[in-house]
Amino acid sequence: QVQLVESGGGLVQPGGSLRLSCAASGNIFSIDIMGWYRQAPGKQRELVAVITSGGSTNYGDSMKGRFTISRDNAKNTVYLQMNSLRPEDTALYYCNADIWTFSERSNYWGQGTQVTVSS
Fold first, then answer.
1. What angle do CA 57, 94, 106 make, to 5 degrees?
2. Going by C-beta distance under 8 Å and a sequence separation of 6 or more, which residues neighbour residue 54?
3. What is the pLDDT of residue 26?
4. pLDDT value of residue 102
């Protein structure tokens, strides 16, 4: 079985920073796109950032210039550095990845990590 486990969420003041991590484990052959999505109460889940195995990135519009996604392919881990955080960044942040096991390619979600931006 494949699992995605997020860490690094918490409470931060406006203007502060947080770094999220997501590690994939299990019967993994390779990982294509890894990324982060978020969902605030009463809102739809939205793209935060994604990164390919080759390092190409794409960001949601409100995250550009403030958030940076990166990955360590050797560790099957994706990171999200979040700077200049705003109250509207408060949400449950989910890790997502397209993973090849030795038999098939499937899409996986983590359980989510809460980010709260408040003074």
1. 75
2. none
3. 96
4. 87
